[in-house]
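Review box. Two proteins, two foldings.
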Amino acid sequence: MRQFTRRSFLTISAMTAAGIALDWKKISAWAANMGPKQDYPTVIIGAGLGGLCCGAYLAKQGFPVTVVEQHDVPGGYATSFDRASGKFTFEVSLHGVTAKNNAVERILKNLGVYDRLEIVELPEVYCLKTPGGVITVPQKDPEGYVLNLASLYPKEEDGIRGFVNEMIGIADEAELLHQRGGKFFKPIFPLQYRKMWNARNKTLSEMLDEYVQTPALKDALSGLWGYYGLPPSKLSAFYYSVATGGYLKNGSCYIRQRSQDLSNALADMIEASGGKIHYGRQVTKILVRDQEVKGVELAGGSVLPAKGVVSNASAINTFEQMLPPDAVPEDYLEKLKTYKPSISCFIVWLGLNQEIKDKVPCCGCYVSSALGVEKGYQACINGDIENGAFGVSVYDKIFEGYSIAGTSTLMLLFLCGYGPWKKFEADYQAGRKEAYYKEKDRWTEILIRRADEMVIPGLSSIIEEKEAATPLTNRRFTGNTEGAIYGFEQSMDNAYMNRISNETPVKGLYLAGAWGNPGGGYEGVMRSGEITFQMLMEYWGG
C-alpha cells in the first residue's frame, strides 16, 4: 500500500465534496441551533442558475432571501429573447444537459420544480463533423458510439472502447460515492475508487495517450472540449470524464420551451416561498464589519442588511470591486490572480423563412477545426473565425413546434477569447460602436458562410432574421469578467478537486455559480448553489 499522506486525504476530500447530495439530517440539526430564521436575511447577488438554486433552497426553508439582478429577467445565460415582434424566440445558451438520474434531477425535485418543467430528450447527444467523416454520438448507447468511431478507426477499436469505458467508470464511481453520502475509508480509497484516483492528476490528453494513438481520433474523443472551455492538454481528465461519461450513459436533454422556463420556475419558487427578486438593480458594495458581512449597498445608495451574502457574480468583480480593500487577506487575492476567466463566445442566431429540420442530420452539429483540437483552440482564442471549430444547433429537430410553422430557429456558436474584442471595449462602453458593429457584422457573415458551406447548403438565402452577440455582449448582460461563459477556466490548478471553494475568507460571504465550485455548465452551477446552501446552514448553525 502506498503511503497515504495528509495531502492525499485532502485531495480525496475535495474530490468528493462537490458531488455529494445534501445531508438533510445535519441541515435539520443546524436549523434547530439557529433560532428564528428571520434573523438570517440573505442577499443573493445575481439571478443566474447558481444564485437561483441557492436562493430557492433558502427560501423553501423559510429564510428571508433577496435576489438582486441587474437584468430584467432571471437566468443569466439560461435565458431567451424575442425578435421580429415575437416571431422568433432565440435560446441564449442551452444545447443539451443531462437532467435525468443525476444531480440536476435531484436538485429540481428537492426544490419542487421538476414536475413544472418538460424535459425533452435530444434525438442524439451530438454529431461531430471531422475531416475524416461524421461521428454521431447516440443517446444512452456508449457501445454504439464506440462502433461509430471504430468504423472510421478500425485498428483502434479496443482502445476506443477502453477509453469510453474508463470515462463511464469514473462517472459511475463518482455517482457511487455520492450515493454513499461521500463516506469513505481513506486508507483504501485508491482501491475502492481506483478509476477516480488514477485520473485525479491527469490531463485529458494524458488519459487519451493511454488508450489511442491516432491524433485525429484523439481529437474526436475530446469532441466535447468546448463544453468545458479548454483543449485536452489543459483540461482535467477527471472533470471531462465525470461530465462526458454522464452524457454517454444518461443522455442529453433540452428544457421545453427554452432554458428561460427553468430560470422562471426557480425564480417563481423563491417568490412563492416568501423571497424577493429585485430586477434592474445592481449591487455596488458588499458591506463588511469586523471581517464579517453586514449587507450590501445598491446603486443609488440603498442598503440591504444581511447575515449572509452569496455572490453569483464574477468572483473577480466581487473581490476587486465590491469589497473594501482591507476585507480580504492578501494571499487570497494573490491566489485569485493566478486563475483566468474562461473562454467566451461569439453567437449568431438565425430565424429562417422555411422549415429545414428534415434537411439536416442532427440537432447539434459541431464542425471540428482542420487544424486539430489544440491549434483549433488557439484559433478560437485568437479570434480566427475562418479556421476555428464552430457549432450549429437546429432546435426544431428537438421537438415539434419549437418554431412557428413555416420557419426554423438556428444558433451558430464560435468559442473565442476576449482579446480580439478588447480593443473595442472603451468605445463600446462609451456608446461609440461603429467600428465594433463593422467587426461584428464581418464575423457574422463569415460564420454564416461557413455553416452554409459545411452544414446547411443554401442557408444564406433563407435567412429572415439574424442577431449576434460578442464577448462584450456577454459582459454587458451578465457582468462576467471578459465575457467568460464558464467562470474561471477549468485549469488543472483550479478544477474539481482543486477548485476554488465557495466559502470565502470573509465570514458570511460565499460564491455560487460558474466562478465557484464545481464550475460552469448547467449542472455545475446548480450544484454550486446547492453546495453553498449547505455551507451557509453549517456556518449559521454548526
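Next protein.
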Amino acid sequence: MVTAIVSCQKKIQVDSIIINAKVYTVNSNFEEAEAFAIKSGKFVGVGTFEDIQKKYTSEEIIDAKGKTIVPGFIDAHCHFLSLGFNSQQVDLVGTSSFDEVVNRVVDFSNANPTKKYIVGRGWDQNDWENKEFPDNNLLNKLFPEKPIILTRIDGHAVLCNQAALDLGKVTIDSKIDGGEVVTKNGALTGVLIDNAESLVMDFWPEPTLEDTVKALMKAQKICFENGLTTVNDAGLDRSAIEIIDSLQQSGALKIRVYAMASGTPENVDYYLNKGIVKTEKLNVRSFKFYADGALGSRGALLRAPYSDQPNHFGLLLTNLETFGNYAKRIANSEFQMNTHAIGDSANHTVLNIYKNVLAGKKDRRWKIEHAQVISPEDFDLFDGIIPSVQPTHATSDMYWAEDRLGHERIKGAYAYKDLLNNYGKVALGTDFPVEQVSPFLTFYAAVARQDLKQFPEGGFQKENALSREETLKGMTIWAAHSNFEEDEKGSIEAGKFADFIILDNNIMEAHLADIPNIKVVKSFVGGEPVMD
C-alpha cells in the first residue's frame, strides 16, 4: 500500500530568494527560469516562481522586476593586476598622435611631482597619421633625468627615454633572443620589442606591497561594475598570487581568480612541486607561456613574410627546445599549459608540440591563448585543444590586419566559428587592459563582428560570427570548462556558486546595436551583492 504524502511539509529556510526575473540559466539545455533560491553562497533551487515559493522561504526576497539575470561573466583571458596598476600610470589609450602621448606624460608628471619613475600604457601607432614607431628624442629633451617607459597597447613594445635605457645600459649593439632593439640611422629610437623590454624592465623598481594591494582592489571594483565575477589573469608571479590569496582569505578581495602562473623557471619549479592550489576564490593549476609577439608590433611569428614588411617573419619568444621541455614536464603533471600564439607559424608549432606531448592523455584542456592567425590545415588540430580568444581584437585590428597578412592569409584570422566547430567550445575574454574591460563589447564584437562605428558594413568575415547563445556560453560555462570549474560555476544551477548579475536590458533579445550600452544593475558573488 502506497501512502499519499500531503504536500504540507515545512519549507526550506534559505538566505535569499530572487523572483520575477528573466533568468538565462546557461544549463545544458539553455533553459530559462523565473526565480531561484540561495543558501550558503550556492544556488539550491532554480525554476518557476511557483516552484521556488512552494519549496523555500527566506527573510530576504529580491524582486528583479522582470530584469534579465545571467551567470556572472568569466573573462577567460585578461590581465587583472595590470588593470589595477594602469590606474597608477599614464593612460595613453586613444591618443591620436605622438604629440598627444607626450602631452599626457607631461601632465601626469606635473600632477605627480614626487614620482621618480614614470610608466604609461596604451599608445598605438596604427591610430596615428604617422604609423611608424615613434622615437624618444622629445622625451629625452623634456625628461633628461627621470626614467620613462611607455608601453604599447598590446604590451609587446615599449618606448623608453634615454634615462630608462641607461638603467639597462642599452646600446645599439644590445641583442636578445626573441626581441628587437629598434634603431634608426645608427641610433637608438628607444623602442624595444618583446623580449628586449626586459633589458630595461629587469632594472625597474618593483611595485610595493601597498601599490599591489591598491591595484588589486581598484581592478576588482572595475570588474564588478562590468559584471565579471571570475577573471583569468594570464601571467602572474608567485608573489602576486600569494597577495591575491591573502586578500581573498581576509575577505577584502571577493572576486574569483583563475591564476595562470608565468612560465618562469622559478614559478614552474615551485608549483609543480607544490601541486594545484585551489580554494573557493583562487585556482592555480596552469602556466602561461609566450610563443611569439603581437601582430600590431609585427612580433607575431608568421610562416611567410609580413605583407607590409617583406623579409620579416616576426619573433619567436621562447626557444623551441626550452618550450618543448616545459611542455613535457607539465604534461606529466595535472597542470594546464596555456600559450600565447598569434601568428600562423606560432600556432602551428605550439599545436604540434601540444599534440606530441599529450598523446594518449585525455581531457587535459590545454589552451592556445589568442589563436589569432591559423593556417587552413591547422584548424583540425584544435580537436582537443581549447581556443581562448578575444572577439574585440578582431574589431580593433581589422583596420590594418589585412595589410599585415594579405588577402588570403586574413581568411584564417580571428576565425572564431571555425575554432568553435573544431573543439566544440570557445573560451571568450578581452585581454584587458589591451582592450576595454566591458564584456558587452566582447558580446557585441563576437556576434556583430563590427566596432562601435558599425564598421565594416555587414561585419568582418561574418561567417565567423558567433550566435548569441554561443557567445553567452563562451563568457560563462565554456570559460568555466576551460578552467576545470564547470561543476562549480558558469551556469545558474543547484549546487553551484551563486555568482550572477542583473542587467538593465536583455542581452539575448536587445537590438544588436544596443548591446554595448547594457549596464550591470547588480553583481553577486556567492549570493553576496558586491556592487550597487
